[in-house]
Amino acid sequence: MAMEVQLVSPERVLFVGEADMVICRTLEGGDIAFQPGHVPFLGALGSHPVRVYLSDHSVTEFAVHGGFVEVAHGRVIILSDVAELASDIDVARARDAASRAEAALRAEPGDAEAQGAAHRAATRLAVADAA
């Protein structure tokens, strides 16, 4: 039995379909997997890959940077602040962003903006590498 999954960003709908499982990382409790029959759930998302396991045993991965996940009535809805398909990620640009963030962190280790930029770049690169 599959469940309906929707992944939406302010710019577009990235995914609508059925899946056997969705794994994402919440700010409150780390990675969580949702399968059909999961109890209702609402959680905030950080910047991390989201994996959608399809019924044909393939996996679709997205870079999600903030937002919320809601599970209810056999559906998983991810409302992201920013989300990207692996195929949309510019790897060279992500590597450049990671290098700039690392340089900024060497100069100022506590720079929260640089820490966020480094984490977003790492998420993008992880998703692009998995594709």
Structure description:
This protein is α+β, with helices and mostly antiparallel strands. It has two domains: 3-85, ATP Synthase, domain 1 (Sandwich), CATH 2.60.15.10; 89-130. The chain is built from two helices and eight strands. Strands 1, 2, 3, 4, 5, 6, 7 and 8 form an eight-stranded mixed sheet that branches. Helix 1 packs antiparallel against helix 2 (112-130). The longest helix has 19 residues, at 112-130. It starts with a strand and ends with a helix. The model has no long low-confidence stretch (mean pLDDT 93).
Summarize this, please?
This protein has 131 residues and is an alpha+beta fold.
Strand-residue fraction? Answer: over 45%
**Tally of DSSP helical segments:** 2
Q: What's the overall geometry?
A: globular
**SSE arrangement, N to C:** EEEEEEEEHH
CATH fold title of the largest domain: ATP Synthase, domain 1
Q: Nearest-angstrom radius of gyration?
A: 15 Å
Helix content: 25-40%
State the assembly state of the protein chains. single chain
Largest sheet, strands/sense/barrel? 8 strands, mixed
Mean pLDDT: 93
Instruction: Flag low-confidence runs.
Output: none
Distance between the termini: 26 Å
Number of domains: 2
| Number of extended strands | 8
**What is the correct CATH architecture of the largest domain?**
Sandwich
The CATH C-level name of the largest domain is Mainly Beta
Based on helices, strands and strand pairing, what is the structural class?
Answer: alpha+beta
For the record, what is the CATH homologous superfamily label of the largest domain?
F0F1 ATP synthase delta/epsilon subunit, N-terminal
